[in-house]
Amino acid sequence: MRLYLVYFALTNLRHRWFMEHGSAFRGQLGADMRRMFFGVLLAVATVAPAAADEIKTGGKLLLTGGVSSIEGSGGGGLATWATTTGYATEEGVGGNVHGTYVTLPDFELRSWGAAVGVFDRVELSYARQSFDTQDAGAALGLGQGFTFNQDIWGVKVVVIGDAVYDQDRLLPQIAVGAQHKRNDRGAIIAAVGGEDDTGTDYYVAATKLLLDRSLLLNGTVRMTKANQGGLLGFGGPNGSDYSAQFEGSVAWLATKRLAIGAEYRSKPSNLGFAREDDWMDLFAAYALNKNLSVTAAWVSLGDIATFRDQSGFYISLQAGF
Amino acid sequence: MTVKRYLPFASAVLLTTVSAVAFASEPWSMPGEEAIEPYTPSAANAGAQPFAGDQMFQAFGGQAGVARIVTDLLDRSFADARISDIFKGHDRVRLQRVLVEQFCFLLGGPCAYSGRDMATAHKDMGVQPGDMNALVENLQLAMEEEGIPFQTQNRFLAKLAPMKRDIVDK
Ligand code: HEM
Fold it and tell me: Domain spanning B3-167 has what CATH number?
C-alpha cells in the first residue's frame, strides 16, 4: 500500500513536470526518473524481507526528519543534517518528494526530487537542480535563459546517536553521506575554467536537539570540489583538490509545527572568472501534518558568476510520509 | 522501673502495628489495585532527577493539573489504535496513581515516586520506537489541552526522553 503511494507520488510528479516543462528535458529526465524508480523500488524491495511482518510508517515526531534540503538530502534549506528524511522509525520506511524554488535578482534556481528513509538509518535521495541564468545568460554570452542542470544522487547512513531522545548525553546523532553530482553543461563549465562536470561530495553531519531549550543544532563538514554546489562544475584554476567546508544550522522550535532558524554554509572559490561566496539563510519550516510541509526562507548566496549579492526568496514544498 | 520493664514489650507491639499498617498499603499492593511482584521503592525508580524548585510543577498546574494531564494521556493511549493493544488489560488505577506521582516528583512537586523503575515496568512489553513516539504525541496533546506552553512541554519531555532506552524493547 505504502509502496504504491511512493510510486503514485513519483509518477504524478513526473507527469506534472512534463506538462509544465514540455519536451526539452524529456529524454534526459525520463532516464533519470527511471533510474530513480528502480532505486526506490530496489530500496523498498531489499527492506521488505528484512522486516519480520509489517513495515510501519509515520512513527516519527513532527518535523524530526527535517525537510528537503536544496540538494535533496534531509536537512534544513541549504544544509544537510544527520537525520534521515521522512517519518519512518527503526521499524519502517518513509519517503517524500519535494519541489523548491529560489528567486534571485539575476538567476532562478529550481530543484525537485525524491528521497526515502529506511529504518531511520539509511537515506537515499535524488534531486534535479536547474539553475536558470535568465537575462544574465545573455549578458554572459550563454544565451537568454541558459540553464545548467544537475542530478544529485545522495546516500546517507546514520552511524551513532539519537538526536531526539539522547537528552542526557552530549553525543549528537552523527551520519556520514555522499552526494554524487552530474552537471549537464560540461562544455560551458570547461570554457569558464571548471575542471569537471561531475563530482562527489562526502560529508559528516552531526545533529543535536536541545529539547530543554527547544533548539536544534546541526554542524556538517563537507569535503567538496563543487563550484556553487556543482552548478558551475567542480574544481578550477584556484583549486582542484577537495577542501573541507562547513555548514551549520540553528533552529528554534516555536511550536510543534513551526521551526525558525538560520543557516550558514561555507564554499570553496575554485573558479578564476568569478569569486564565490558563502551562503546563508533565515528560514521557517512549517509542518501542516506528517504529509505536507512548507519551508520559506530568505537566502543570501553572495556573488554568483560575476553577478553581485544574489539574495532572494526560497520556497520549498515537501509531500510524503 | 515499671516503664523500663515494659519497654521491650511495648516497642514490639508498636513495631508489629506499624508493619501491619504498612503492609496493607505497600506500593505493590494498594487497595483498589491489582497486587504485583514486590519491589524496592526508590526515588531512582522515577528514571530522572527532578527539576529544582517548584516552578515547573506550578507551570503544570500543580497536583490538579498533573492529574488532568495523566488522565488525558491515559484516555488517549488506551484508545489509540497504534498502542492500545499494549495498554489493554493493564491496571489503569495503578498506572494513574504512579504516573501522577512520577510526573509530580520529576516536576519538582511535593511527591515521592513509589512505582517500579522504567526497565522493570516495561519489561517484555514489546514497545517499539514508533510506540514511544505515539505516547509522546499523546502526552503533547494532553499538555496542550492543559495550556502548557510548548517550550515548557519540551523541558519536561527532555527529562523523559532518555527513558526510551529502558522502555523500548531492543
Ligand atoms: C517516557 C515515557 C514513559 C514513561 C515516563 C512511563 C512511565 C510509566 C510508569 C511510571 C509506569 C508504572 C510503573 C509501575 O507500575 O510501577 C508505567 C507502566 C506502564 N507503561 Fe509506561 N511509561 C512510558 C512509556 C510507555 C510507552 C511508550 C508505553 C507503550 C506504548 C507504555 C506502556 C505502559 C504500560 C502498559 C504500563 C503498565 C505496566 C503494568 O501494568 O505492569 N509506557 N509506565
Answer: 1.10.490.10
